[in-house]
Specification:
The complex is a heterodimer. By secondary structure, chain A is mostly beta strands. Helix content of chain A is 0%, strand content 57%. Chain A has no helices and twelve strands. Classes of the chains: A mainly beta, B mainly beta. At the A-B interface, strand 5, strand 6, strand 10 and strand 11 of A face strand 4, strand 5, strand 9 and strand 10 of B.
């Protein structure tokens, strides 16, 4: 079974500081990995995805993530936090032949002025 | 382009009542999903439909039934609502059940309260 672990349900970051959200996955076959963002009272929106091409993936709103097979990780970063980055972020995994997305528990990001 | 549309957006039910949550997508996607979101739990898969005419149980199917009415529509039914089913429900769709790696697109959610 595939799964994702996101530690730290709430993450506080100062405006202008680095945003780092950690995601570790478990999958018996090569995974496809996704980061989604959810703004208050909204659905989920795709930030970026890894599908076995480049290991460093760039997404929308200045976010990027690096796939590290040796560490089974897909951490999300943004060099400089903006107030508009306050939202909940979810890491998710799927794999070939398994048409399901398994989500982590999410990180609620608070940006401090 | 509407994407994934869910109705209703809000609903309050009494324990034991039944209701159907509707979902429709206009992206010609093969696969559709129902998730529930609870605080601190992330999103958990209730049921999914890899293609028209097929449905499969997800992680938390008890108390729910689904119907893939056609390629566009995938409904979720609560036959006898319980307070434990108070949650936010999301419908999603993706291009293909075989070509995984394509992202899922989500609706705006249905906030359901069972009293």
């Amino acid at each position: 079974a595939q799964s994702v672990t996101q530690l730290g349900s709430h993450v506080s970051v100062s405006e202008g500081a680095l945003v780092l959200l950690r995601c570790n996955y478990s999958s018996s076959v090569p995974p496809y990995l996704f980061w989604y963002v959810q703004y208050p009272n909204q659905g989920l929106q795709l930030l970026l995805k890894y599908t076995s091409a480049a290991t460093l993936v760039k997404g929308i709103n200045g976010f990027e993530a690096e796939f590290k097979k040796s560490e089974t990780s897909f951490h999300l970063t943004k060099p400089s936090a903006h107030m508009s980055d306050a939202a909940e972020y979810f890491c998710a995994v799927s794999s070939y032949g398994n048409n399901r997305l398994a989500f982590g528990k999410g990180n609620q990001v608070v940006v401090i002025p | 382009n509407a994407g994934v549309t869910q109705t209703p957006k809000f609903q309050v039910l009494k324990t034991g009542q039944s209701m159907t949550l509707q979902c429709a997508q206009d992206m010609n996607h093969n696969s559709m999903y129902w998730y529930r979101q609870d605080p601190g739990m992330g999103l958990r898969l209730i049921y999914y439909s890899a293609s028209e005419g097929t449905t499969d149980k997800g992680e938390v199917p008890n108390g729910y039934n689904v119907s893939r009415l056609n390629k566009r529509e995938f409904s979720l039914r609560l036959e006898s609502a319980a307070p434990s089913q108070t949650s936010v429900y999301f419908c999603a769709s993706s291009a293909s059940g075989v070509l995984v790696g394509t992202e899922a697109f989500f609706g705006q959610g249905t906030r359901l309260t069972v009293v």
